[in-house]
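Hey, can you fold this one?
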Amino acid sequence: MSQKPFIALFPKPPEFNDEVVIKGKIKDNASVFSVNFCLDCCPKPSYVAYHFKTVFDSNSVVHNFKSGTWQDEIHEENTWIDGPGQSFVLTFLFTDSDITVYTEDQGRCYQYAFTHKFDINDIRSVQIWDDYEYVSEIIFRMKNN
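Sure. Predicted structure:
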């Protein structure tokens, strides 16, 4: 039986320079770990602005988006985590052209960038899927106007 996603709703639509920080732990026997930024809030979203998936068997990271159906995947080497069983901190920064992924929060280390396919203001939820043991914290850092 698959694990239900951890879903957090944005307090307001994200804008450029807003950030989402996710802290948690990957299961010891994990094969896949995913984070989705969704335009709808339901557990099986039809529109995903950014899909960030780590596949431990192939030591790869997959980037994608969903517009009714999943689009062509972009594969890169996994450089952000050593393997299953690890605690993690991921920071996702919304820029005017992409969603940038960093490890850690204070001493950030650049990892990946995914070019926008949707307007980031339409993102409504962040979902953590697959083989996570727990999510300890999600921080929404919203730009001050």
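The CA atoms of residues 25 and 106 lie 18 Å apart. Let me know if you want another pass with a different chain boundary.
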